[in-house]
């Protein structure tokens, strides 16, 4: 990996995660209470021995930049030429911001050239998975490929969300379609499935740079890897498919593009189960993050109807559950849940204060929100839609500017206390 440079694309707007991405980049969205989404890919880099990584940012990147700078730059040895370096658009090649995934890399040719890598790994900062990139690089070298795509099998009805890869028995790629409505292509290794691109690519650097320069000169290009760079290489360069090897060590391979509110919510709640699909506790593949200084979590009061408790939940540092009940939920740092409140199946971001006598169910509450006493969320869809952002599945998103009112406390709720 010493001859390899990682380029992590972390500049997307994450429109399908709105309103969580209204004030932050998608890779900076909290995950699992303790982490940010980008921590998963950066941990894969460290665990794979990839220690030279450019992180390309653009959209509302303040919190992302701060998180990487304070939590990751000290992980690598700069005196050995290792780095996790943030690269915002510097307009070296023109007056435009990043116009696509390929253009983002093209605009940083100067920085790439200064490192003189033999290979380049293109990564995304908004996916949840465990992968050893060194294994993929070894496959790339052994197959003498010009470009290698990481792939995983998906159901045919899911193809509109992925780049579809047509793979020969030898593993060579003979076709590529970016997010087709349907396809007749099937995997030679799993006849009922389709091989999909994971958005993880390894290029021989010389091959990639020539392709980027040619693409930049094409006025009709979308300057995107999936739409332009990869299709234009078909039949001209040796392209290989690398079948995803999951370091998560579960029966089914785990890879999630948490690009929608519902998929993001489900991935978080899975972590609360007795045997979660995505294992955060695997010491052989640690997930790292920026460590904040908070006191330990605390649970107080043990009175009838007023017992501080959490069941099947993730509770992080600085949380105080004061005479409240929390179940099947993820609570980030510095959250306070006050007496006689019930929180169920919810994801609570940091610095949230939930007042007394509240009932909250199937909600995501953004950071720095104060929930007034007696608030009810997740029980009346019409009322929730009047005040909050609600997905078609009924998931309620509460942000700092939500028009919260001092709701009267539900008498039936109070009868139990």
Strand order of the largest sheet: 5-4-1-6-11-8-12
Summed up, the helix count is 10
Assign the structural class, choosing from mainly alpha, mainly beta, alpha/beta, alpha+beta, or little secondary structure. Answer: alpha/beta
| Coarse shape | globular
**pLDDT under 50 segments (min length 5)?**
403-409, 413-417
CATH architecture of the largest domain: Alpha-Beta Complex
Q: What's the CATH superfamily of the largest domain, by name? A: Spore Coat Polysaccharide Biosynthesis Protein SpsA, Chain A
How many DSSP E strands? 31
The share of residues in extended strands comes to 25-35%
CATH C-level class of the largest domain is: Alpha Beta
Largest sheet: 7 strands, mixed
Question: What average pLDDT do the residues reach?
Answer: 91
Count structural domains.
Answer: 2
Q: Tell me the distance between the termini.
A: 61 Å
- Might you state the CATH topology name of the largest domain? Spore Coat Polysaccharide Biosynthesis Protein SpsA, Chain A
Q: Give the helix proportion (percent range).
A: 10-25%
Q: What does this entry look like structurally?
A:
The protein has 417 residues and is of the alpha/beta class. It is built from ten helices and 31 strands. The protein has a seven-stranded mixed beta sheet with strand order 5-4-1-6-11-8-12. The longest helix is centred in the first third of the chain and has 12 residues, at 37-48. It starts with a strand and ends with a helix. The relative contact order is 0.11.
């Amino acid at each position: 990996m010493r001859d390899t440079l990682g380029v992590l694309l972390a500049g997307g707007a994450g429109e399908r995660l709105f309103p969580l991405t209204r004030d932050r980049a998608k890779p900076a969205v909290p995950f699992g209470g303790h982490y940010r989404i980008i921590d998963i890919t950066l941990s894969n880099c460290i665990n794979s021995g990839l220690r030279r990584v450019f992180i390309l940012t653009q959209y509302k990147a303040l919190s992302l930049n701060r998180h990487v700078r304070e939590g990751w730059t000290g992980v690598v040895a700069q005196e050995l030429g290792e780095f996790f370096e943030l690269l915002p658009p510097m307009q070296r090649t023109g007056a435009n911001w990043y116009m696509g995934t390929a253009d983002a890399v093209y605009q940083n040719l100067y920085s790439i050239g200064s490192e003189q890598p033999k290979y380049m790994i293109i990564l995304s900062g908004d996916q949840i998975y465990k992968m050893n990139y060194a294994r993929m690089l070894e496959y790339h070298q052994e197959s003498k490929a010009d470009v290698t795509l990481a792939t995983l099998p998906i159901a045919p009805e899911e193809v509109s969300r992925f780049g579809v890869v047509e793979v020969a028995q030898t593993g060579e790629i003979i076709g590529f379609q970016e997010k087709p409505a349907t396809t007749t292509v099937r995997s030679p290794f799993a006849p009922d499935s389709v091989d999909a691109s994971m958005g993880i690519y390894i290029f021989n650097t010389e091959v990639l740079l020539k392709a980027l320069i040619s693409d930049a000169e094409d006025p009709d290009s979308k300057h995107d890897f999936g739409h332009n760079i990869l299709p234009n290489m078909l039949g001209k360069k040796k392209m290989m498919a690398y079948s995803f090897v999951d370091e998560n060590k579960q029966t089914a391979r785990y890879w999630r593009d948490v690009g929608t509110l519902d998929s993001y919510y489900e991935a978080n709640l899975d972590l609360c189960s007795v045997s979660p699909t995505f294992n955060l506790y695997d010491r052989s593949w640690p997930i790292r993050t920026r460590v904040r200084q908070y006191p330990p979590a605390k649970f107080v009061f043990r009175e009838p109807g007023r017992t501080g408790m959490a069941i099947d939940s993730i509770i992080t540092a600085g949380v105080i559950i004061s005479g409240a009940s929390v179940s099947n939920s993820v609570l980030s740092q510095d959250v306070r849940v006050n007496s006689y409140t019930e929180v169920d199946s919810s994801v609570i971001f940091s610095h949230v204060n939930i007042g007394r006598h509240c009932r909250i169910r199937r909600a995501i509450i953004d950071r720095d929100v104060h929930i007034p006493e007696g608030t009810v969320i997740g029980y009346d869809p019409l009322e929730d839609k009047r005040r909050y952002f609600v997905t078609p599945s009924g998931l309620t998103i509460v942000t700092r500017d939500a028009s919260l009112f001092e709701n009267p406390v539900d008498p039936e709720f109070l009868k139990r206390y």
